[in-house]
Each structure stands twice: as C-alpha cells, then as structure tokens.
Amino acid sequence: MSIKENYQSIKNQLPGHVQLVAVSKTHPASAIEEVYGFGQRVFGENKVQELMEKSPLLPDDIQWHLIGHLQTNKVKYIAPFIDTIQSVDSEKLLGEINKEAGKNNRIIKVLLQVKIAAEATKFGLEITEAKNLFQAYTEGKFPNVDITGLMGMASFTDDKQQVTKEFSTLKHIFDELNQLNPLKTLSMGMSDDFPIAIECGANSVRVGSAIFGRRDYSK
Ligand SMILES: *Cc1c(COP(=O)(O)O)cnc(C)c1O
C-alpha cells in the first residue's frame, strides 16, 4: 500500500477523540511533507539530531513531539520549538526542560513516560517516581512545563492479555493523577498495538511503520 492508503486506513481506525502522532523517525523530510499534505500536523521523532536536520526543511505549523529518550544536554536544542516532549523519564530531565523553557519564555508541554512493560530495557519512570514527580509539579516546582499527561510502551509481545494488562495499569495511574490535577493526554499504542491501547483508554497514539512503511536502519 502507498503512504496515502496507509495513512487513510489508520485514520479510519481511530475514533474522533484519539489524536494521531505520525512517527516519522528514519524517514526523509519528503515523506513527512507528503503526509503533511493529507492534513497531518503532529509528527513524532525520537532523536534530537534527526529532528534538528529535518524540521527546518518542513512547514512551521508542524507540531513536533519528541518521543525518544532525551539527554539533558540536548534539551537546549529543541526547547525553542518543540511542541511536546513525551519521554520525560527523570526528575533531572524535567528540571532541565523547565530551565530551558524559561530561557525561551515558553511553557513546554510534556508527558511523563511511565515504565509499564515487563521488559527491563525500556526507559521510563517507576510508578511511584512518576507520582512523586507529578506531586512536586502540582506544588509549583516546575513552572515552565505543563505536564499534560502520561506516555507508556507495552511489552513487545503477541500476548494480547499482557499488553492489555500493561496499558490498563497506565490508565489507572492516569485516572489517579487526574484527580490531583487535570490531565489531557494518555499516549499509548504503536503500529502493532494501538487498537488495544484505545480499548484501554488511550486518547493519543504514536504510529510509524503502519503509515510510512518499515524502517530501514541500514541507511
Ligand atoms: C518508533 C516509536 C513508535 C512508533 O513505532 P511503530 O511500531 O513504527 O508504529 C512509537 N513510540 C515510540 C516511543 C517509538 O520510539
């Protein structure tokens, strides 16, 4: 299928309340421009360097989301323009984003990335860490960030029950924190598991290969 058919097929599978973040990592600016032409405005990249290379080639009204692990020393590069940083996985990183946002006279939207997968390899905050960080935020500790929600990745497995369990855990935490201070975005689900994520309450999904095709890391 073409990128256009892929994109339309994904859009058709998403209920109206679910935001699509089109994950364009490893794909060239020309492919992003094509999807932009279908009306898509929200794109996700996982590497700062790649984002810095591609974003100047593309329209200004794209809302860029950083979805990959972010090193604190790279925050300064994206702070002037990033729409949302979905991958906040430490207090140190949140502090750095707050500082750089302040220097740019901005309030940067962020999601706390919570570790929900059984796999040990995934980045993310432990559940109690996420709760404590959010508590500190509600007490005014990070005035230049807006924590708009949570992000999580399920285990890479065909076990639908396992994935459902992991996404449901994050939805539960989302509801709990939402009582403390209103949240908007629950970002869960990728090409292979976004329908399950939506069943579990996701209202934002991050879809890459199902739109752009398989990634070629050899280039
Ligand atoms: C690459 C990536 C995605 C998209 O993955 P696909 O399987 O290509 O849809 C979503 N979220 C994160 C954090 C990613 O790194």
Report on this model:
With 219 residues, this protein is of the alpha/beta class. It has nine helices and eight strands. The chain has helices at residues 3-13, 29-37, 48-54, 75-78, 91-103, 127-138, 160-180, 194-199, 209-212; strands at residues 19-23, 42-45, 63-66, 84-88, 108-113, 145-152, 185-188, 204-207. Strands 7-6-5-4-3-2-1-8 form an eight-stranded parallel β-sheet. Strand 5, helix 6 and strand 6 (145-152) form a beta-alpha-beta unit. It is globular, with a radius of gyration of 17 Å. The mean pLDDT is 96. The site of pyridoxal-5'-phosphate has 14 residues, from strand 8 and helix 9.
N to C succession of SSEs: HEHEHEHEHEHEHEHEH
Residue stretches low in confidence (pLDDT < 50, at least 5 long) are none
Determine Rg (CA atoms, Å).
17 Å
What average pLDDT do the residues reach?
A: 96
Distance between the termini: 22 Å
| Physical arrangement of strands within the biggest beta sheet | 7-6-5-4-3-2-1-8
Give the percentage of residues in beta strands: 15-25%
Structural class: alpha/beta
Oligomer: single chain
**Count of distinct strands:** 8
Which cofactor or ligand species appear? pyridoxal-5'-phosphate
What is the percent of helical residues? 25-40%
**What overall geometry do the principal axes of the alpha carbons give?**
globular
Put simply, the count of helices is: 9
Give the biggest beta sheet.
8 strands, parallel
